[in-house]
Amino acid sequence: MIIFVVIIALMLIVGFSVEFVLECVMGLMCLMMLALFLFFGWCIVRLTVSEKCSGRLARVEKHPKFGYGIPFYDIGGEVFANTFPCEVVMKGRLYAEGRECRLMLDKKRNKVFDGNAVLSSVAGLFLSGLSVWVLVMQISDTFGYYDVPIFR
What we know:
Elements: H1 2-14, H2 18-48, E1 51-62, E2 69-75, E3 78-82, H3 91-94, E4 100-106, E5 111-113, H4 115-143
Parallel strand pairs: 3-5
Antiparallel strand pairs: 1-2, 1-4, 2-3, 4-5
């Protein structure tokens, strides 16, 4: 965050206009939201090629590098990690050991999508797509890109 502030300050000191700096910031926000949209789109594609199955929650372990909890599910004697980390807010209710769950098994990646991961992927795709659209419309309204055909 500090690097971001320093870069903006240097841009203003060098002589870039405030309008150009704001365009850059909003463009960067749009690119980040587009990256999120592509990530959730990729998750939806992985969901469509995954097979439905049921399994039991075997355990929840902390990721050794990042420290967040990852649920592991037992499906027919094999244990698979969930694609997304544990939901922190309702962890006790959503991730009770031995709980039977409907899952989507991604055999190519040896991971599963539980209900929370499916819901997060669908909601994330919708909300990030909406955010990209709103940012593009805001950029076009604020900085007057009415002559560009995509913004009409």
